[in-house]
Design a protein that fits this description.
The chain is an all-alpha fold. Helices cover 77% and strands 0% of the residues. The chain has 10 helices and no strands. It has helices at residues 2-13, 23-27, 33-54, 61-80, 87-107, 120-137, 141-148, 155-180, 185-211, 214-237. Helix 3 (33-54) packs across helix 9 (185-211).
Length: 239
């Protein structure tokens, strides 16, 4: 169970975003969601090291200049509001936004649309939301995708930009997580045992990303976003 979750994290870091969001629900089948999120953070960080190296030449600099500081701001907001924010409300909101984005993209598939250009205003909004939701439950992929997918970036650039943005966000989460949910020796040993699964997943994710055609890659991303959004909504309304 835990190995599968770590492998999913690795796949997301290898270039298949949204897949990693399934890791917390999978791990939560055997432990509390809070402990699951805490244990998986070191896995995310270590996978980021490999993923950043794999995509060190593929990224969108204009997006990074906005999304990185915005994401760090979102982590700070999540930290400050951790004691009052409702996890269910955030989960439902992100699931609803992701669902709406996918339906809009698919229903308008026949329409010719020009690629969107990076926007400081939209970038700060979606970037800070990505940082916030990533801090709450490692669910930062939908806001990121809703901002970047309309830009129609090359798949490697899209994957590399996501990798670098969330690598910085995950590092920014380390101290707040330690202050709010202190790591025990047991949790660290459990996380260490999952590292090989995550590293294999990262390499496999990068391999699949580079082998898939642009059409199938972005269809996979959108379908993943849709399924994860449905799962988020179901989790939010479950008794």
């Amino acid at each position: 169970m835990f190995g599968v979750a770590a492998f999913l994290v690795g796949l997301s870091k290898g270039g298949l975003p949204a897949i990693g969001m399934l890791a917390v629900p999978v791990t939560s089948l055997a432990m509390s969601p809070v402990k699951a999120a805490t244990m998986l953070l070191p896995i995310y960080v270590l996978s980021d090291v490999v993923a950043v190296w794999l995509y060190r030449k593929d990224f969108s600099a204009p997006n990074l200049r906005v999304l990185i500081p915005a994401g760090i701001l979102g982590v700070l907001i999540g930290w400050l509001l951790a004691s009052v924010v409702s996890d269910r409300a955030v989960t439902f909101l992100i699931g609803g936004l992701g669902l709406a984005f996918c339906l809009n993209a698919w229903l308008r598939r026949g329409a010719l649309t020009e690629p969107a250009v990076p926007s400081a205003l939209r970038g700060w909004f979606w970037g800070s939301l990505a940082g916030f939701t990533s801090f709450i439950s490692h669910a930062g992929a939908p806001p990121f995708q809703m901002y970047v997918l309309p830009q129609k970036l090359p798949k490697a650039v899209f994957a590399g930009t996501a990798t670098i943005v969330f690598a910085v966000i995950n590092v920014a989460k380390i101290l707040p997580y330690q202050l709010l949910r202190p790591y025990s020796t047991q949790v660290m040993w459990e996380a260490a045992g999952l590292v090989p699964f995550a590293l294999v997943g990262t390499v496999v994710g990068a391999f699949l990303t580079r082998r898939l055609s642009d059409r199938w890659f972005f269809l996979f991303v959108q379908v993943s976003l849709f399924l994860v959004s449905v799962k988020l909504i179901a989790s939010a309304i479950a008794p």
